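can u do me a favor
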């Protein structure tokens, strides 16, 4: 058993290492999955074709529309100027004295409205960098600030968020995107508050040490370059030409449409579970329980409508960019889902190996309550894969039915399982090899050495919050 477990740990360690070094997971996940299979004495080609590829293909089948529509929605919001308008207006309303809060809120609004996490980072960065420079806050704190706003409470804690991490548990537990709303709101507020306190503490420490925004940074946005040129020539900052933004209310309209329709299609008489006859679905499409896929249908309908509204509110601005924008969105969606699917396929091979039974039993026994055990399992697998959605999918595929059976036996609501699993996926996933972390640092022109400490602090805050909620809920 020791050698079987060692085979798994070696393959996991190698996958984490190559991901940290920037090599594509889509290539190395199957390689290291087959390495683990070979070391465990399993046949290589059947492990690849029947275990790895089957589960990877199932993941693409289930979630590709959401990845694609999310990428398109975010890209259209970027092209029509709505994302920039929202970020600009939030920053303007909060002001430079509360720069960190302004950036967190701007990221949170866009993420909760359905804009892809990566698009949020691109959209907010120019305004955030300008605001940090104006407030003389070290730029190295900017990645942690964006991570708090985009990668935490609005990604998986607040009820109704249309991000994929909040949709995956619905197929396992028969819930919807609004599962356990009170727990989600409390958890989201805790993460938001504690994260802000950490970042403000770091800002005060830097100010006391006389550290400002800094100089010689890479990838400085145009607005910051304009500030630097104005300062160098003695021109007032007010003279620097500012771009024109659409009305904030018009910019918010597509986000509101997505949120409202997602709720309508999930929890009202117009819900997606009532769109088709149950008998027809069972007989023709072999869908035994429509509740297991209704959340995906609801989000697909909401995002599709949101894309149409986003196209209409500034059609002239989007017209010349549409072909290139849609191509970029599709390419981004393909890369994102196939990277994640490769990680899911990797996990599916791992779960067939003899050593995995020992690891599974250790995780299941890691807590005396299903919520604690689930929080541990999802956190561990999200951390190993460096992916919130990948780790969540693997954990629920391997152990979701067991957790649901335990919940039913003890009278525990499946909605609590959903919310804890979703929030746990956004805990230790942001280790250094996480794709979103690497992309965020590249966008801001900073390094792990400069900024990862604060990203990791936010990660710890998120993880501790999940275990605190699971612990409190397990008492009652």
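np, heres the sequence
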């Amino acid at each position: 058993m020791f050698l079987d477990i060692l085979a798994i740990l070696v393959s996991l360690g190698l996958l984490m290492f190559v991901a940290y070094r920037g090599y594509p997971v889509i290539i190395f996940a199957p390689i290291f999955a087959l390495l683990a299979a070979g070391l465990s004495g399993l046949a290589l080609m059947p492990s690849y074709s029947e275990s790895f590829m089957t589960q990877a293909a199932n993941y693409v089948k289930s979630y590709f529309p959401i990845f694609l529509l999310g990428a398109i929605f975010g890209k259209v919001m970027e092209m029509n100027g709505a994302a920039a308008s929202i970020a600009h207006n939030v920053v303007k309303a909060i002001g430079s004295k509360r720069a960190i809060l302004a950036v967190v809120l701007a990221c949170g609004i866009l993420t909760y409205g359905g804009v892809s996490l990566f698009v949020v980072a691109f959209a907010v960065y120019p305004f955030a960098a300008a605001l940090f420079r104006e407030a003389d806050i070290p730029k190295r704190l900017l990645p942690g600030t964006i991570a708090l706003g985009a990668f935490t409470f609005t990604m998986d804690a607040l009820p109704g968020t249309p991000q994929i991490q909040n949709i995956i548990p619905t197929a396992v537990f028969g819930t919807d995107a609004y599962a356990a709303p009170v727990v989600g709101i409390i958890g989201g507020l805790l993460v938001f508050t504690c994260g802000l306190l950490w970042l403000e503490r770091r800002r005060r420490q830097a100010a006391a040490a006389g550290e400002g925004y800094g100089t010689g940074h890479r990838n400085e946005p145009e607005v910051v370059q304009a500030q630097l040129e104005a300062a160098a020539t003695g021109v007032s900052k007010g003279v620097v030409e500012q771009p024109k933004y659409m009305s904030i209310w018009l910019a918010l309209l597509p986000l509101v449409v997505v949120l409202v329709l997602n709720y309508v299609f999930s929890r009202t008489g117009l819900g997606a579970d009532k769109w088709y006859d149950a008998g027809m679905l069972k007989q023709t499409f072999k869908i035994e329980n429509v509740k297991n896929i209704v959340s995906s249908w609801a989000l697909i309908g909401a995002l599709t409508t949101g894309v149409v509204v986003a196209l209409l509110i500034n059609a002239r601005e989007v017209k010349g960019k549409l072909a290139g924008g849609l191509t970029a969105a599709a390419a981004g969606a393909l890369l994102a889902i196939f990277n994640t699917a490769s990680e899911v396929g990797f996990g599916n091979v791992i779960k067939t190996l003899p050593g995995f039974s020992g690891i599974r039993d250790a995780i299941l026994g890691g807590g005396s309550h299903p919520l604690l055990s689930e929080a541990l399992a999802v956190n561990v697998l999200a951390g190993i894969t460096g992916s919130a959605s990948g780790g969540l999918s693997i954990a629920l595929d391997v152990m979701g039915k067991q957790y649901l059976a335990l919940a039913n036996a003890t009278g525990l609501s499946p909605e609590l399982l959903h919310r804890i699993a979703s929030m746990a996926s956004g805990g230790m996933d942001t280790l250094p090899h996480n794709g979103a972390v690497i992309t965020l640092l590249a966008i801001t022109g900073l390094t792990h050495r400069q900024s990862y400490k604060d990203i990791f602090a936010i990660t710890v805050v998120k993880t501790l919050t999940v275990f605190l909620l699971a612990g409190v809920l397990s008492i009652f």
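Residues 44-79 form the longest helix (36 residues). hope that helps!!
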